[in-house]
Amino acid sequence: MAAKVAGATTVVAVDVNETRLALAAELGATHTVNARTDDVADRLRQIRPGGLDYVLEITARPQMWPAVECSPHGVAVIGAAPAGPQRTIDMNSLLAGGRMLRGIVQGDSVPQIFIPKLVEL
Asked: pTM for the complete prediction?
């Protein structure tokens, strides 16, 4: 919903739960991808062949990593993960096209302001 409100025209929700995917579509996702049944990278390339501008991976689930790799010229954001998950990346993949990889906590927002605003919307 926040992406749609911010002006994003293509919003892709990726999850393993059909109920959450349906909710994402109801709240503004233009596309949904089930990582349990779909090849995430393939579906994302079909939806946006040139790559995604922003990818927020906030689950720390290994099967979601291909979404991060589908942002060749954009910003990939990794959210909080429990202790332990690791991922090896090819350093050159960050250099090509100026890709940026960064971490966030709670969307880098002030929850006391952001959550009530989303509820209002």
From this structure: 0.76
